[in-house]
Design brief:
Structural class: mainly alpha
Number of strands: 2
Strand content: 5-15%
Helix content: 55-70%
Shape: elongated
Largest sheet: 2 strands, parallel
Strand order of the largest sheet: 1-2
Distance between the termini: 38 Å
Radius of gyration: 16 Å
Low-confidence stretches: none
Order of helices and strands: HEHEH
C-alpha cells in the first residue's frame, strides 16, 4: 500500500487484487496501511480488511487479548462521551 499513492502501477495491483478477491468471494486484506490516506485508498478499492501501523505496531500474541480488551473499552468510552 505504501507506494500506491504515488505509483499508478502499485494502485493497479491493489485494484486487481481487490477485484480478484471479490470475484472469488474471499476476504482481501491490505497490509502496510500507515496513514489515513492509505486507509481511504484501500476502502475505495474495496478491500474487506486492512492492517498496518495506522492501527497498531506489531504485538506478541500473548498481549493480543489485553490489547483488544483495551481498544474495546476505549471505543465504548468514546461513544458514551459523544452521546453526552
Amino acid at each position: 500500500v505504501s507506494d500506491a499513492l504515488q505509483s499508478e502501477e502499485d494502485r493497479l495491483i491493489l485494484k486487481a487484487v481487490a477485484g480478484l478477491g471479490k470475484s472469488l468471494g474471499i476476504e482481501t486484506t491490505a497490509e502496510g496501511v500507515e496513514t489515513d490516506e492509505h486507509k481511504e485508498l484501500v476502502k475505495l478499492e474495496g478491500y474487506s480488511q486492512m492492517q498496518g501501523y495506522l492501527f497498531s505496531r506489531p504485538i506478541p500474541n500473548a498481549m493480543l487479548a489485553d490489547y483488544l480488551d483495551k481498544e474495546t473499552d476505549e471505543r465504548a468510552a468514546s461513544k458514551v462521551a459523544a452521546a453526552t
